[in-house]
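Quick illustration, no need to memorize.
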Amino acid sequence: MTTTICFANNKGGSGKSTSCSNIGYALSAMGKKVLMIDGDMQLNLSLSFFDEDDVLAYASSGENLYEAIKNQKDLTDYIIHTKYENLDLIPSSTLMSSIEYELFTKWQREFILKKCLKSIQESEVYDYILIDAPPTLGGWVMNILIASDYLIIPVEASPWGLFGLANMFEYFRAVQEMAPNLKLMGIAVTKVDMRKSYFKQTIETLHELEGVHIFDSCIRVDSSVEWSQDNSAPVVAYKKSSRSAKEYMELAKEVENYGSR
């Protein structure tokens, strides 16, 4: 069966897009068929697989997520292939900034993405669908959560990394009332600097959360991530020998083991 996972956090800079792209690539490298969906107007997930010119061309064309959601179309026709085996993408558009307005007038607007994804999910062509959500808690993120089986919350190991996490949990519980099958897979700790004492404080605080799974694999600060982004590639593909690439591979294995339980 197809497992749909969204990456969301209302706190910007948490490493959502980086985690989504690298876990997606790592799962595909493990032989899983993966579809990535870029749900953010910042286009970062799309830029993880295509250069800027291609991403902007998709964003300005009719072949992107915004056009599909606006017109409530089956997303099957918006899938593009990446250069990586087993890995496809539905690109985003800068017009996603106005998606809340487009949703406002629609009937059952909270379920539009779920309806647009239905045929892909039911076809079971993909083992995983991974969705990158924008750093907000509006109606569009609600759409993304409702269309998903699991939520992963990337959290930056910094003094401000935990800021707003309580709001994220409250929002998640509210969405569960409309999507009772939605589950929190866990929190992935990112941008870790082992030299800083607040890393330990962050981990201790997160482990105090009752009933919340914290992934064992933490992603440390690594310049290889920035270089991979500059080259429009996940770090797991760009530099497999790097520390962050190995950590993302381990995190992907945790996701795979969790999803197959």
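The beta strands are 3-7, 34-38, 80-81, 87-90, 128-132, 150-156, 183-190.
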